[in-house]
Amino acid sequence: MRKSVTNLTKAMAISAIVFTALCAAPALAQEEKQFNFSATLNSDQFFGFYPTFQGSYGVSDKTALTFYGILWSGGTGGNWGNWTEFGIGANFQAAEGLSINPQIGILGGNLLSSGTRGPAIFGDGIVPNLTVNLLREKTEGQFYFGYYAPLRDEAPVNTTPPGTTLAYIHYWVNFGFRASQFFSLGAHYEHLINSGGSNVSESSDVYQWLGPYVQFAKPGGGPFARFSFGTDLVEGNDSFFKLTTGFNF
Prior knowledge:
The chain is 11% helix and 56% strand. By secondary structure, it is mainly beta.
């Protein structure tokens, strides 16, 4: 328990240092600051229904403080100790229409710390993640990679079978063509891997989705809707569907 609390304290301290450094940067910048925020509603057959939000505050022409949240508890995550994710990071404009956004998140719940068999706790896990966005006149795309690691071990030991912590690798990539500012279409690939845990002998694929997507958006920014669907490449699974709608402020 003492080791778990120590790990949690270290993670919170690192996050606080990063946040403080990024918040201090505006005092050194002369450019006009800009705040952006978006909220989305998502639904797929694995996670169920889960709202998300993300925001950014510009500290220079090419750098912004970012924050995000995922309310996994809206769907399947409700059975995972009301699973909730929140994180902070920084966004860097690497080139015209290309941005790189490393972030680190922390979770509350019991999926990672006990495989849903223990109490719902703050510090269930930690999520270093990276998002790369592409948005140009005729093309669009996104790459995401996140590693969901348990931060505390609350798995029961005096049970049969014994409990376990869990860890996951989650990544996706999509790329599409913008027929207009209103309509775009492309391909989506997404992979979720159960990568291990305190009592997990080997990693395994949870799902591996591949298929097309279509998106409709208000020209100039605002509301949008995207629908992805296709096959699941994991043996024994059939297909996938994913619907996202939201608003950019």
